[in-house]
């Protein structure tokens, strides 16, 4: 029996760049189906094929430091999938 690692709990986003990004700060933005910004990720600035993991979660809520010891207090809620027509 083969036992392998579990698949990541994140979406793997693969992208391609013709040239290396040199000037300014580069960012990868995630939008929902209505065009609302959901998250911003720091991508790789090298040229070629790159991959970044997006945890598919919204920003974590601001909570008191003692609450971070509780489960799920340091994570935001999962992003709901877009409804299918």
Uncertain stretches = none
Instruction: Describe the sheet with the most strands.
Output: 2 strands, antiparallel
- What's the number of extended β-strand segments? 4
- Strand order, main sheet: write it out: 1-4
Tell me, briefly, the overall form: extended
Proportion of strand residues: 25-35%
Rg, nearest Å = 17 Å
Give the H and E element order.
EEEE
Topology:
Layout: E1 11-17, E2 28-31, E3 37-41, E4 48-54
Antiparallel strand pairs: 1-4, 2-3
Structure overview:
The protein is an all-beta fold and 85 residues long. Helices cover 0% and strands 27% of the residues. The strands form two sheets. A two-stranded antiparallel sheet has the order 1-4. Strands 2-3 form a two-stranded antiparallel sheet. The chain is extended and about 40 Å long. The model has no long low-confidence stretch (mean pLDDT 79).
Can you tag this structure with a few keywords?
85 residues; 27% strand; two-stranded antiparallel ribbon; mainly beta
